Amino acid sequence: MSAQAPSAVILVRAKRFVPNPATAADNAFQREVPAGESPETVAARALGEMDALAQALRDVGVRVHVFEDEDHTRPDSVFPNNWLSTHAGGMVAVYPMYASNRRHERRADVLEMLKSQYRVQTIVDYSGLEPDGIFLEGTGAMVLDHVSRVAYTARSHRADTHVLERFCTDFGYEPMAFEAVDAQGVPVYHTNVIACIGTDVALIALDMIPDLQRREAVRERLSVNGRRVVELSEAQIREFAGNAVELCGRTPEGRRRYVMAMSARARRSLLPDQVAAIEESCEIVAVDIPTIELAGGSVRCMIAGIHLDRRPVDTEPELTEAVRAINEDHPVTADGRYVDADGRTPEPAL
Prior knowledge:
The protein has 350 residues and is an alpha/beta fold. 27% of the residues lie in helices and 21% in strands.
């Protein structure tokens, strides 16, 4: 498994998706639903986009864990990377969220799945900081270099530097915080909309870091181990070109393959030389998700990567009779997921 690019991911199939009114004030990327479109239409279209992303990742050999969510009070649950991150050595972090209606996106069943199928040693829960008005929204607020152990963070009220320091101490990262703003001086709400770090390539809008000295420090730190830095424009950031993530898949023959997952909109914004630079180290997987992007996030926001060692299958707990009966009644897909009576493939019971 690559230190930077996880081979397994968590997605949430949010059946009641809608852009979150509680996050519109500070998310300059968020847009209103087009006039005349019903919530049911928007939700159905978003559901199709989520399924398309899941299938595109499976097609390149990434292990995909999909969790269903029918709760209409969790409009942003499609973005699990804000409340959860996983780390080598069996470490898991749970984060404090800024918007109060996002805090119950945290799910015990997701954590239980991780504990049952992967080697989890420690779960560090920072969510108790929410009553104190202290927030750090996971790998939205931080873009992590798992190789050089650096946490790049654009300062905002969604990324408190005090809890950033705590996270870095607990998980062994070096904090690298900076100011990042758009052309109107509006702070960037999440670091992962302006930066993506892969194993051998990084995409970042350095011009959105106004402090020239800090800008050069970020550039130097990103490239210190030979990583190629691809600079993005603010216009490309508006198209979500920075909201990408490197993953490690497998070819049909079982060989490792690195992919850069992004939206089709982001891919269209890239220049030929930028595409060539990315494709020197990984292939681009682009999926069209225009409805979900109305919420101000794109493909990276939808993916919680799993940087944990998988448990051997023969050491998993014995199934109960009830679960065994369910598994016998429903066929199993090629990637080990269970098909229910409606043809959907939820996670197996825990």
